[in-house]
Amino acid sequence: NAGVTQTPKFRVLKTGQSMTLLCAQDMNHEYMYWYRQDPGMGLRLIHYSVGEGTTAKGEVPDGYNVSRLKKQNFLLGLESAAPSQTSVYFCASIRTGEGNEQFFGPGTRLTVL
Amino acid sequence: KNQVEQSPQSLIILEGKNCTLQCNYTVSPFSNLRWYKQDTGRGPVSLTIMTFSENTKSNGRYTATLDADTKQSSLHITASQLSDSASYICVVSPNTGTASKLTFGTGTRLQVTL
Q: Which residue among B41, B43, B49 sits closest to A104, beta carbon to beta carbon?
């Protein structure tokens, strides 16, 4: 099993450009999440999904959109990137039960110039 | 507001020494507390989980304690190794639902040196 994978690993954008981050999991998990991690701050939830075709806003959803067309994939989109979106983005999925352990991907480092 | 505070922010220890990381939380209601290890450039990986009724739990050289009355947890690392160099993140869950309400601490960055 590959677990949770993220594409791309690194990306540099100019202000106003758009991009999509892809998260894929092969563990048949229902719940998937997108977080951002910034220096000196804890992981913050952007959007999440409790199943195929569903999405919900997290703590910091502004400027991002998501889609969950297939159970194994969760896409995070930036329509018009801003320097404030420079961050490391992590995707996670949950194994329900056992305290809902989250399995994280390796992260995508995004820089917006 | 639910908060998780970790201390110290960073720590440097010699290989072979022990250390203890602290986590204080104000999350309510409380369901469980996890400690994650995050290696540089990687995603967090779960080390331990503790529920309200548990006082201590071990995972190899890692031992977590929980005092639900004072809302404090600690992670003790015994006989540290270079591979223990990482950030350790405390995460508190208020319920056993969708995990959309998790509160993450900012982490303790541990460096183990020769």
A: B43
